[in-house]
Amino acid sequence: MSFAIKKQGEIVVVDVEGQLIVGNRQELKQRVLDELEKGERKFLVDFSQTGYIDSSGLGVLVSLSKKIREQGGELRLANLNDDLKTLFELTKLDTLFQISDTRERALETF
Amino acid sequence: MSFAIKKQGEIVVVDVEGQLIVGNRQELKQRVLDELEKGERKFLVDFSQTGYIDSSGLGVLVSLSKKIREQGGELRLANLNDDLKTLFELTKLDTLFQISDTRERALETF
Amino acid sequence: MHIALELEIPSDVRYIERVVEIVAKQCAQFSYPQHQTSLNIPVALSEALSNAILRGNGDRTNAYVQVKVDVTQDRLILEVLDEGLGFNFEECLQDPREPDNLEREDGRGLFLMTQLMDRIERFSNQGNVVRMTLKRHD
Amino acid sequence: MHIALELEIPSDVRYIERVVEIVAKQCAQFSYPQHQTSLNIPVALSEALSNAILRGNGDRTNAYVQVKVDVTQDRLILEVLDEGLGFNFEECLQDPREPDNLEREDGRGLFLMTQLMDRIERFSNQGNVVRMTLKRHD
Ligand SMILES: Nc1ncnc2c1ncn2[C@@H]1O[C@H](COP(=O)(O)OP(=O)(O)O)[C@@H](O)[C@H]1O
Ligand SMILES: Nc1ncnc2c1ncn2[C@@H]1O[C@H](COP(=O)(O)OP(=O)(O)O)[C@@H](O)[C@H]1O
């Protein structure tokens, strides 16, 4: 599991490779907060390479989203497979995030 | 696990794909004996696609080799990986069979 | 065919991913449907494991977590054992979908376990045991 | 980390390949060296299983074979249980390398088990048990 962070235009795109779980969510949190600190405001997390996400992974996304909103920014999500969609629906987190089917779409509409 | 049998020149070549074990050795035996019945005399078993062989698989090779010899023919082996070589050495069956490193070599020297 | 698997790991969240992989592979042996081996089992088991490690064993650094798996063609039983004092499942279970909870960082673990498994039991047996049962849903 | 696995199969040689695959994968989890997971374990376990099915259970068509696996970083213990009356291992063990035996079709199973494992024990415990121990050899 690892995170690849790169900038596309003015959007910070994070690829989550592997699991997003209690063992590594802290790393994701810190890396996104570092970018926020540096002044970045638009964030996209791409799950096309993600396995499963546990409740603490979901929790990190919720808390990052809040912190980013407090700074006038936004965190969006893209490329959830069917399992991940189910997970967001079960927890109603699909109502909290703007979720795009593809990365391109998410980048265009930001 | 399956067996592919084809003829190259006057040599019947048998590819053992997967395991050669108690559950499928009977099939190998029958198919080779059918060819022997039809008048074939030169047989090469190629193990390049083989996983493991158990004692009943070794037993079938020994008994086929004997039956073929009794008809004035020969059974040779090719492409044993390191594990299979160890198995033949442990049981001294490497002294009973003519074993070639490659199929080409086995075909040439038959 | 019937498989029973027992694992024991140190109380450390870094083992979770490996345990989940081993258990999910075992169920794949029985050709459980893909959404169960890639969503229900991994997520519910991760939740039970991280609770056992962080809540149950907590600061007991020499403690262990035991996982027992019992699989047949029809159903999977997962048991996660920690060395803690146990807890009241019903009281600790919250609904993270409620407006007041939706933006909270924590409190989704037990809820996800109930949603992703067919049955959850909690009992004490020389430590705290959470037992989860999943029927094969094709 | 420590894994214990128990499997129960009908007394039918067609299950052997699947059981071997499950056990070998479990050992691969502990990164046992490749020659052990691709030679020693598969062959020794196949031998014990086919003896349990064909010799131990024999014509008992409703009988089962149980396999218990206990793996740690350092060693693997395999137990194969059948419902037969047991046998005298030393007396049944032959040397297939002797000139008189070299061209025999059968009689290599117990010999291969002793060659491929570090230790073999046979005892009775509500049926016949063959226990094989393999140390990790890197
Ligand atoms: N194994 C356990 N041992 C003790 N308490 C537990 C255990 N599992 C869960 N709990 C209790 O249940 C609460 C809710 O758990 P959960 O829904 O997973 O949310 P979170 O762990 O994020 O708080 C925990 O905060 C804890 O008090
Ligand atoms: N599980 C078992 N139950 C009863 N007898 C057994 C068992 N395993 C082995 N034996 C005896 O040991 C003999 C030798 O076994 P083995 O070396 O595997 O050769 P093979 O099975 O080819 O005869 C068998 O023929 C059988 O009499």
Q: Can you give me a brief rundown of this structure?
A:
Chain A is α/β, with parallel strands linked by helices.
Folded structure, characterized:
- The complex is a heterotetramer, with 2 copies of chain A (110 residues) and 2 copies of chain C (138 residues).
- Chain A is of the alpha/beta class.
- Chain A has 4 helices and 6 strands; from the N terminus they run ββαββαβαβα.
- In chain A, strands 1, 2, 3, 4, 5 and 6 form a 6-stranded mixed beta sheet that branches.
- Chain C is an alpha+beta fold and 138 residues long.
- Chain C has a single domain (2-135), classed as Heat Shock Protein 90 (2-Layer Sandwich), CATH 3.30.565.
- In chain C, strand 4 and strand 5 form a beta hairpin.
- The mean pLDDT of chain C is 95.
- The chains are: A alpha/beta (110), C alpha+beta (138).
- Chain A binds chain C through residues 1, 19, 21-23, 51-56, 58-60, 62-63, 66, 82-83, 86-87, 90-93, 95-96, and chain C through 13-14, 16-17, 20, 35, 38-39, 42-43, 46-47, 50, 54, 96-97, 102-109, 111-112, 115-116.
- Strand 1 of chain C pairs antiparallel with strand 1 (2-10) of chain D.
